[in-house]
Amino acid sequence: MTALDIEHTDIMPTNIGVSQKDSIPSKGIAPPGRASAVTRVLTRKQKAAIIVRLLLAEGAVLALQDLPEGLQAELIRQMSDLRYIDRATLKSVIDEFVHEIEDIGLAFPGGIEGTLSILDGAISPSTAARMRKMAGVQLTGDPWATIAGLDPELLLNILKTESTEIAAVLLSKLKVSVAAELLGQLSGPRARKVAYAVSQTGAIAPDVVERIGRSLADQLGTQPPKAFDDGPVERVGAILNASPAATRDDVLDGLDQDDTIFATAVRKAIFTFADIPARIAPTDIPKVTRDVDQAVLVTALVAATGDLEPIAEFILGAISKRMSEQIREEMTERGDVKPKEGEAAMAAIVVQIRELEAAGEITLIADDDDE
User: Fold this and answer.
1) Does the N-terminal or the C-terminal CB of the chain have fewer CB atoms within 10 Å?
2) Alpha carbons 36 and 59: distance in angstroms, whole number
3) Which residues have a Cβ under 8 Å from the Cβ of 303 and sit 6 or more positions away?
4) Strands 24-25 and 41-42
5) pLDDT tens, 90-99?
6) Does domain 271-370 have CATH number 2.40.50.140?
7) Where do the structural domains in the chain lie, given as residue ranges?
8) Does 271-370 match 139-221 at the fold level?
9) What gap in Å lies between CA 247 and CA 236, rounded to an integer?
10) CATH code of the domain occupying 139-221
11) Residue 102 to residues 91, 95, 99, 293: CA-CA distances in angstroms?
12) What is the pLDDT at residue 164?
């Protein structure tokens, strides 16, 4: 049972200002051997309080925090005013509630934010962002639950740029594992200041913490949607992976001159034919060669001369003896290979490796520099 179910019945109407004259008497059924019980006259708000009390007593988990604050406050007032309910009245309220629930065919969340949550993944991020901006959407429910589901990179930026006190509150509201990971990515002095500030958060009032959460959720929710799924390092790395070696080396040399840090990151993101022995386990090589056209494999191995010759031997040594002997015979028959043909064949093998990695069939060994 969710708060949405309760909110969309007459027992918990959206209009919490129902007057006493709208009260509907609950007609109970007297137990056998007793005279007809006189049931109490209850308002719909009182009936809602009874249902909530009953469900909580039965151990149900109710997402009451998703109700508007006005409804939550009214529910508290109604529950505090009630003392006891006789069995006949309780049964009548339950019957009415069940009847109204069964009559609901489909419930909509109400409001732009709730609708966008349902449509998440079905509409483009740009459309969702535009609708939020046009409607001036105010977040409902627990803002910290929204923040917890955001990209850690966004949260890291908040920890770096916001005041120490705000960063401390944010860190305190995240899961311990996430908070530890983000804290480890801060600079030493900043991490120490934020960690100390966490120790001072105990005296912050709950409503202040909620306002901070809503402000951060609103700020993070208005971030412009990303035009690209991958970051610039991954995109440049993927492009250079498929580029000829001469082009790749020339671009990397240029990047070294313009932005050494970016160039270093791109080099780590690049995977080339020469990286095979260091990044792929010998047991995974048969998976790679299995789906590569044998003529392409032979061409790549023939072209692997000089510094690349150990790579060819690594591949041949990782496949079955019979297959290795067969490929060596074909390499002898193949003769010389033009540089462009060799590079194209090596690139095809690299593409196959990347596809297997993306599919989860193989795992690349981490680069020593990344550990």
Assistant:
1) C
2) 31
3) 337, 339, 341, 342, 343, 345, 346
4) antiparallel
5) 999 999 999 9
6) no
7) 3-103, 110-136, 139-221, 271-370
8) yes
9) 13
10) 1.10.220.30
11) 16, 11, 5, 61
12) 92
